[in-house]
Specification:
The complex is a heterodimer of chains A (168) and B (276).
Chain A lengths: L1 E6 L2 E6 L6 H8 L18 E4 L2 E4 L12 E3 L12 H8 L9 H14 L5 H7 L11 H15 L6 H8 L1
Parallel strand pairs in A: 1-5
Antiparallel strand pairs in A: 1-2, 3-4, 3-5
Helix pairs in contact in A: 2-5
Chain B lengths: L6 E3 L4 H8 L4 E4 L5 H6 L7 E4 L9 E4 L2 E5 L4 H5 L2 H6 L1 H9 L3 H6 L2 H7 L7 H6 L3 E6 L2 E6 H4 E3 L2 E2 L6 E8 L5 E8 L6 E9 L5 E6 L6 E2 L1 H5 L8 H10 L14 H19 L1
Parallel strand pairs in B: 1-3, 2-3
Antiparallel strand pairs in B: 4-5, 5-10, 6-7, 6-10, 8-9, 11-12, 12-13, 13-14
Helix pairs in contact in B: 11-12
Classes of the chains: A alpha+beta (168), B alpha+beta (276).
The structure holds flavin-adenine dinucleotide and FE2/S2 (inorganic) cluster (FES) (2 copies).
C-alpha cells in the first residue's frame, strides 16, 4: 500500500506492507535511527515520536496509520542547526547516561511543554510516566526538562552567552 | 515482534466500516493500543484491519436531550481535556487522566477500550456507575445496550463480530457528584482495582468496580445500604462491609484475590468518604 508522509518537514512516498510498524519505517526505510526500539511492547517509550504534533509510541502504530500525517522525530527537533532547548538542557543538566531512552523522553517532553509551559516537578514526572530510563534515576531528566521550560518561556531566542555555554 | 500479514482499509463512514467488517476475519482498528500489542504477540491474527480513525462521525463530545454523548472514536486525551466532561462527569476526567501514559491517552479511544473489555481497564467502572448506554451499529441495524448488560466476561462483551460501537450516552443527573479512584499497576497504570461512585442528589448511589473480577460490575449489595439512609460513617462502613460479597475475585501475579478484595474495600471507602 502506498503511503504519503511528511517526516521532519520532508515529504516521502513509499510502498509499504500494512504490517510494517512506523518505527521500522523510520529506522529501516528512512534510516532515521534516532528513534530507538526498547521494549517493543508499548511500555518503555523509547520509540516516541510526534504524529501530527502529539507524542505516540511508534512501535504501536503501523506506518499505514500515519498516511497523510506529519511526523517529527528527534532528528527534526533542531532548527537551522540550533539544538532545541530540550536538547541543550539535557546536555547541561546531565539528563542522560547511556542515552538510549533520551530521544523518546525528549519527544514526550517537547509535546508536554507545548501544553504546559510552566510545569511543576510533579507534573513533569507525571508527563514522563510512559518513558522508562534504566540509568539516570530520573532526577537529572526532571531537572533538564525544568531548565528547558525556563529557556523556552524566555521570549527571546537563546542568548549569545548561553550559546557559548553549550559549546564548552 | 512482527504481526502476521493482513490487509488494511480505512473507510470514511460507519456504513463502509460495517460492510468491510462483514467479509473474512476482519477487525476494527481504532487507537491500536490494545490491538497492535496483541497482534505483535500473535495472540490475534486478523486477515484485515478496518481503520476507523478517519470517520468524522465517531469523533467528539456533546450534550443533547439531557445526555452527554461521547462518540466512540474520542481519545482518552480528548475526554481528559473536555470542559463539558469536567463539569458534568468529573469522574470521567479522573479516569481519563490515569489511563496509561501521555502517549496511550493521545491515541487510545473509549470505544476501543470498552470493546476490548480488558478486566483491568479503567473506563468500564465510571461507564457502569454513570448508567451509560452503549450505541452500536451492525449489518442488522442499530441497538442500544445498557452498560450493565454490555460486559459478559474476560475480554468479552455483547458486541457481535460485525458491530461497531458508535457512541456512549450518559444521562445528565442534576446535582450528582462522582469520583473514580484506582490502585494502579505501576508500569502500565492499568487498574489492579478501580472503583467509581456516583452519588445522586437524592442520596442514592451507584458503585462500580473494575479490575476486581473477570468482568466489571455494579455492586448492588453495597449500593442498597444507602437506600433511605443518611451518608454518615456508620452507613459508609456498612456499605464497605457489604461490598464485593460473593464476587469471584481475580488472582494474578500483581495481587492475590484476598489482597484485591481488601484493596477494593479500601478504595470504595475512600471514594465514599470523598463524596460524604
Ligand atoms: C502501555 C499501555 C498502558 C495502558 N494503560 C491503560 C490503563 O491504565 N487503563 C486502561 O484502561 N487502558 C490502558 N491501556 C489500554 C488503552 O487504553 C487502549 O487504548 C484501549 O484499551 C483500546 O483502545 P484503542 O482505541 O487503542 O483500541 P484498539 O487497540 O484499536 O482496539 C481494541 C479492540 O477493540 C475493537 N474496537 C476498537 N474500536 C471499536 C469500536 N468503535 N467498536 C467496536 N470495536 C472496536 C478492536 O477491533 C479491538 O478488538 C494501556 C495500553 C498500553 C499500550
Ligand atoms: S519500543 Fe515502543 S514503547 Fe518500548
Ligand atoms: S540514559 Fe540510559 S536508559 Fe535512560
Amino acid at each position: 500500500m502506498q503511503i504519503h508522509v511528511k517526516v521532519n518537514g520532508v515529504e516521502y512516498k513509499h510502498d509499504v506492507e500494512p504490517r510494517l510498524l512506523l518505527v521500522h519505517y523510520l529506522r529501516d526505510v528512512l534510516r532515521l535511527t534516532g528513534t530507538h526500539i526498547g521494549c517493543e511492547t508499548s511500555i518503555c517509550g523509547a520509540c516516541t515520536v510526534h504524529v501530527n504534533g502529539k507524542a505516540a509510541k511508534s512501535c504501536t502504530l503501523f506506518a499505514v496509520q500515519a498516511d497523510n500525517c506529519e511526523i517529527t522525530t528527534i532528528e527534526g527537533l533542531a532548527q537551522n542547526g540550533e539544538l532545541h532547548p530540550l536538547q541543550t538542557s539535557f546536555k547541561e543538566m546531565h539528563g542522560l547516561q547511556c542515552g538510549f531512552c533520551t530521544p523518546g523522553v525528549i519527544m514526550t517532553a517537547a509535546d508536554y511543554l507545548k501544553q504546559n509551559p510552566h510545569p511543576t516537578e510533579e507534573e513533569i514526572r507525571t508527563a514522563l510516566e510512559g518513558n522508562f530510563c534504566r540509568c539516570t534515576g530520573y532526577q537529572n531528566i526532571v531537572k533538564s526538562v525544568q531548565l528547558a521550560a525556563e529557556k523556552m518561556s524566555e521570549s527571546k531566542p537563546v542568548t549569545k552567552e548561553k550559546k557559548e555555554e553549550v559549546v564548552v | 515482534m512482527i504481526p502476521t500479514a493482513f490487509d488494511y482499509t480505512k473507510p470514511a463512514t460507519v456504513e463502509e466500516a460495517i460492510a468491510a467488517l462483514s467479509d473474512g476475519d476482519s477487525k476494527l482498528l481504532a487507537g491500536g493500543y490494545s490491538l497492535i500489542p496483541a497482534m505483535k504477540m500473535r495472540l490475534t491474527q486478523p486477515s484485515k484491519l478496518v481503520d476507523i480513525s478517519g470517520i468524522p462521525s465517531l469523533k467528539g463530545i456533546k450534550e443533547e436531550d439531557g445526555e452527554i454523548v461521547i462518540n466512540a472514536g474520542t481519545t482518552h486525551y480528548e475526554i481528559l481535556t473536555n470542559d463539558l466532561i469536567k463539569n458534568r462527569l468529573p469522574f470521567f476526567t479522573q479516569a481519563a487522566g490515569i489511563i496509561g501514559d501521555v502517549q496511550v491517552r493521545n491515541r487510545g479511544t473509549i470505544g476501543g477500550s470498552l470493546a476490548h473489555a480488558d478486566p483491568a481497564a479503567d473506563w468500564p467502572a465510571p461507564v457502569l456507575a454513570a448508567e451509560a448506554i452503549i450505541d452500536v451499529k451492525g449489518t442488522g441495524g442499530g441497538r442500544s445496550i445498557p452498560a450493565t448488560d454490555f460486559f459478559t466476561g474476560l475480554f468479552s462483551t455483547q458486541l457481535l463480530p460485525d458491530e461497531i460501537i458508535v457512541a456512549i450516552r450518559i444521562p445528565v443527573q442534576e446535582g450528582a457528584r462522582s469520583v473514580y479512584l484506582s490502585f494502579e499497576q505501576p508500569a502500565s497504570r492499568f487498574a489492579i482495582v478501580g472503583c467509581a461512585v456516583l452519588r445522586k442528589a437524592d442520596g442514592r448511589v451507584n458503585i462500580a468496580f473494575t479490575g476486581v473480577s473477570e468482568a466489571p460490575f455494579r455492586d448492588r449489595g453495597a449500593e442498597a445500604v444507602f437506600d433511605g439512609k443518611s451518608w454518615d460513617t456508620a452507613t459508609i462502613d456498612t456499605a464497605v462491609d457489604a461490598a464485593i460479597g460473593e464476587v469471584d475475585v481475580l488472582s494474578d501475579h500483581f495481587a492475590s484475590s484476598e489482597y484485591r478484595r481488601h484493596l477494593a474495600k479500601v478504595y470504595l471507602k475512600r471514594a465514599l468518604q470523598a463524596l460524604a
